Amino acid sequence: xxxxxxxxxxxxxxxxxxxxxxxxxxxxxxxxxxxxxxxxxxxxxxxxxxxxxxxxxxxxxxxxxxxxxxxxxxxxxxxxxxxxxxxxxxxxxxxxxxxxxxxxxxxxxxxxxxxxxxxxxxxxxxxxxxxxxxxxxxxxxxxxxxxxxxxxxxxxxxxxxxxxxxxxxxxxxxxxxxxxxxxxxxxxxxxxxxxxxxxxxxxxxxxxxxxxxxxxxxxxxxxxxxxxxxxxxxxxxxxxxxxxxxxxxxxxxxxxxxxxxxxxxxxxxxxxxxxxxxxxxxxxxxxxxxxxxxxxxxxxxxxxxxxxxxxxxxxxxxxxxxxxxxxxxxxxxxxxxxxxxxxxxxxxxxxxxxxxxxxxxxxxxxxxxxxxxxxxxxxxxxxxxxxxxxxxxxxxxxxxxxxxxxxxxxxxxxxxxxxxxxxxxxxxxxxxxxxxxxxxxxxxxxxxxxxxxxxxxxxxxxxxxxxxxxxxxxxxxxxxxxxxxxxxxxxxxxxxxxxxxxxxxxxxxxxxxxxxxxxxxxxxxxxxxxxxxxxxxxxxxxxxxxxxxxxxxxxxxxxxxxxxxxxxxxxxxxxxxxxxxxxxxxxxxxxxxxxxxxxxxxxxxxxxxxxxxxxxxxxxxxxxxxxxxxxxxxxxxxxxxxxxxxxxxxxxxxxxxxxxxxxxxxxxxxxxxxxxxxxxxxxxxxxxxxxxxxxxxxxxxxxxxxxxxxxxxxxxxxxxxxxxxxxxxxxxxxxxxxxxxxxxxxxxxxxxxxxxxxxxxxxxxxxxxxxxxxxxxxxxxxxxxxxxxxxxxxxxxxxxxxxxxxxxxxxxxxxxxxxxxxxxxxxxxxxxxxxxxxxxxxxxxxxxxxxxxxxxxxxxxxxxxxxxxxxxxxxxxxxxxxxxxxxxxxxxxxxxxxxxxxxxxxxxxxxxxxxxxxxxxxxxxxxxxxxxxxxxxxxxxxxxxxxxxxxxxxxxxxxxxxxxxxxxxxxxxxxxxxxxxxxxxxxxxxxxxxxxxxxxxxxxxxxxxxxxxxxx
Length: 1016
Ligand SMILES: [Cu+2]
Known about the structure:
Blueprint: E1 6-10, H1 24-44, E2 73-85, E3 92-97, E4 106-109, E5 113-120, E6 129-131, E7 155-161, E8 166-171, E9 183-189, E10 201-209, H2 214-222, H3 227-231, H4 238-243, H5 247-255, E11 270-273, E12 278-281, E13 289-296, E14 303-307, E15 312-317, E16 320-327, E17 330-332, E18 337-343, E19 349-356, E20 362-367, E21 372-373, H6 383-399, H7 406-410, H8 414-417, E22 459-460, H9 506-513, H10 520-523, H11 541-550, H12 588-595, E23 631-632, H13 660-669, E24 710-720, E25 725-728, E26 740-742, E27 747-754, E28 760-764, E29 769-771, E30 781-782, E31 784-787, E32 792-798, E33 804-809, H14 812-816, E34 820-825, H15 831-835, H16 837-846, E35 852-860, E36 864-871, E37 875-883, E38 889-898, E39 905-919, E40 922-941, E41 945-952, E42 957-967, E43 972-979, E44 984-993, E45 996-1003, E46 1007-1015
Parallel strand pairs: 2-5, 4-9, 10-13, 12-20, 19-21, 22-23, 24-27, 26-34
Antiparallel strand pairs: 1-2, 2-3, 5-7, 6-8, 8-9, 10-11, 13-18, 14-17, 14-19, 15-16, 15-18, 19-20, 24-25, 27-32, 28-31, 28-33, 29-30, 29-32, 33-34, 35-36, 35-46, 36-37, 37-38, 38-39, 39-40, 40-41, 41-42, 42-43, 43-44, 44-45, 45-46
Helix pairs in contact: 5-6
Bound molecules: copper (II) ion (CU).
Residues 726, 760, 809, 811, 814, 819 line the site of copper (II) ion.
């Protein structure tokens, strides 16, 4: 596809104009616009950007480097039009810009003035948002929030100065247009080129495609049509669970009212890389380095990126440079961008592949010429394993007494830690990361890990990382505050005594034998775990001693560096407050000695005695136990679990400590283990997978300016997967009655807690923010971050703008069902919203308040049975019917209102009309007729058993229980129903297509029958 948007550059002194392949229409526009040039040059540079920057640090803009470039006016014309595509063998309508999908790449140089004319040639409105671009509020492009809607047939001109460089993108922010083709890349070159602009670089925008309109996809999600799951073989049926030995997992899953574990909601049969499923860049030769500007412009897909020609060097993230890091796999979340350097190692075509996170389909670009060298296939997802991991996470959270509300974390003191029972943690323990767990002065009695069943040594304890677990003092008896009695790791075989290859020096032995400082228990009362019958403090000490002895601490002195692997912390940038380390790599002998203890890579394990209050530091950074494979407890991460302020419940860890390391602690403290599919691709082997902890700003500190007031905002991502309602703090955008207020000049910290079982790519418009990770001051700057299921993530930025900015999940269907909110600067008002109140209200409504219709209709031999539903965020209208094709029928209309945030509990009211002369399938002599008004309450129990009590206007009470859509096998569903009127029914369906099933039922009134079901 040619990349020939109508573009011209007008240098301030000389009107240099460059363009090609323009149409007659374009020429006309061009002449017209030349006349307007004078006005353009006046208006293009309207006062802006004084406050803008990609905050403190990270990639410095050229201005920050002391270069102030006043570039030319660079002008583009974008024509939004309909087009026809054929990605699946069938012609489909799509949306395009200048007839291209993706839209043309718009290139600018920092300092340029962008003038972009968007011509709407569609029926209906359109909007274009400049994703990750720092610009004045009105130029952001969000439909009626920032920018006036671009009506059918009209043109809107965006004008802003380019004050940053990097790879970004643009897309529609209206309805589902993005899914249907309205997205394109942006490349901003630095004013002082870091490399020859445009040479040896390729823009690769990845996107997903389905021959289905976005609205229709949304409707399918609302009605929990399982067709997508069937298509990608992701159904977790009871039959499969039993056959594969995961019955218990299925029970747990349904007990927690989780319909299934999955990494994505929608199945996309086609993925495109810069518009094509496969393409080749054969101009590259052996030895060439190529910069890939990768943009995830999908509607709802994360991708695993791989390259067959060696490591990928990640050099930029979201358009800001990061310290280069070499990896084998990158998970790119929706709306993120990465700069990735690849090298062509030899003759041949080397594959750069993007595999959808659900490991169904992929898109590829080949680099070089010669025989194809393919990237390694990622094994299919094992949904049973995913289900098990998700259960483990759920139970672990519950076991830890955890509330998915950050406010409770803040108030947490050691009392709250008493119930830290990890008995739910069965299975793999890969990447168990206790990075920066600062336990100074912390009483950790009764921290019971014995449920962490590792017997049989089948557990993979790779990367059990206690990095920076400072203050976990086992060396000095004088430290009377360190009470670690009862911290029982005795059932963790990997940590039990094993023959030491090298005799530990006496000092180390001393350390080890004195490890369980039992006497301190008398000085400080042990913390009791209310739920635990037998306090672990009473356990015999020798066992613990053994356990500690098994951990050879003899090398702790200088053992400070081990290469970070996978999700482990970057050892060079340990953010532990109390940590000193040097960058020496342990020698072979030392490593050998550690391996003897099944714990190599114990980098940064530092036990030197340091002055009082900076107590010796026991650092289990990169503690890996790869000797034990089998189960997989992937990555329980307690990075930076700083317990310094949590002693004995006296001193509270408070949110008022404006301390970034504390944010990191808050963030990681409750971080559950990463999961296969979510955090690791299956069959990962020894590949290095990029994690956010590996991203560091390339130019020093990104910490926010000092002396500014701080504002802290807690945001909980919430949702109901069954009803497909996604929200923020329990409310869809349409239900929120306030914007989230911030004030210009503040430092803002936002603590996101994901209380859902899905990942969300969260995007804040118009700002770059620090994504708090273990890089301390060098946290990377991003515009979009992924937050894992049940995780917490902290971001920080300086409020430098004005008016309203959108914050939302970039999964198109999550956003449109309501997972969005607005950050609003106090004291500033959007003139656009004032001028377009109707459109603005509509914008709010469209994010959560739309109603989606769906229907189930069975046409059986003895009658027809079905329901039509209108599903909204809180309200649902149901119309049920049963009719025997003769005289008997029943109709029930009900309006249901969901009362609680989780949407398990609802109240309803309606009417029922009955005219029945059948019983057990036989015609009765008497026709019974009844008209009643009914009202009642409904609750969703575990196993998705919906129970309701209702009263009719005559005072008659009825209790009913039912279970729908019970997955017996991949394609078989079962419905069960019973009530106190002694009516009951059962229906089985076999799904043959998205909208069609064969079905049979028995109804206590209507009897047996079989036929077809239409599921729309
Ligand atoms: Cu989301």
